Amino acid sequence: MSEAHQAPRSPRDEIEGIVYFPRLCDKVRLHAAGTLSPDYHGNLGSGMDLWTCQFLGVDYAALAGVIRSGKSDADALAWARAQGTPRTAAELAWWSAFMRTRGFRDDLAERLAQRKAESGFTDRADIVTFMDYIDADEGRM
Question: Is residue 17 part of a domain?
Answer without folding.
Answer: yes
